[in-house]
Amino acid sequence: MEDTIFQALKQTIGTPPDAALARSSERFRDWFAQTAPLIQWDVMDSPLGPLYFAVTDVGLCNLDFGISLETFLNKLDPLVRTQQNRTALAPFVQQLQEYFTGDRTAFDVPLDLHAQSPFRQSVLGTARKIPSGTVWTYGQVALALGKPKASRAVGQALGHNPIPIIIPCHRVVASNGNLGGYSGGGGLKSKQALLSLEGAL
Fold this sequence. Notes:
Elements: H1 2-13, H2 18-35, E1 38-44, E2 51-55, E3 60-65, H3 69-75, E4 81-84, H4 90-100, H5 118-128, E5 136-137, H6 138-144, H7 151-158, E6 172-173, H8 187-197
Parallel strand pairs: 1-4, 5-6
Antiparallel strand pairs: 1-2, 2-3
Helix pairs in contact: 6-7
């Protein structure tokens, strides 16, 4: 972000002297370190490969797999500081490990969905209530929302789920019995693996 700001300044006022640019850059870094929000992240091994997840001071905001660490970090808000912190994220690791070993069927970690629209938040909140070992159709989710004609919009909202597994969009399938889509890494193969783990297939 810093490079983008200084490039814009150069285009507006021309190239400043090196000393002035260095001072401005240092002041900006100090300001950013003191005022920018912090997102903490970590990675764990899982049957789906490396699992990356990140939390704000509110709760879990991103989870993904089937991608590189660089890609995951680039998906986070560019206006925040990021820091790996295994200790702070240990409770999330523990619950995910319990899930993959079959010792946990639901998660009780705090979530941060403020970046999602109100409709998406309602869809994700409804999907989170689907019990392990069962599947709903997109139509059933729409009906639970009181919007029976919104199946397509429900599918689109689930396709932007920033926290798969914890918000179990893998438990939502098409009305014809097909698996439908999946926003998590690995696509339908991962969706099938998660449903098999839960005994829903």
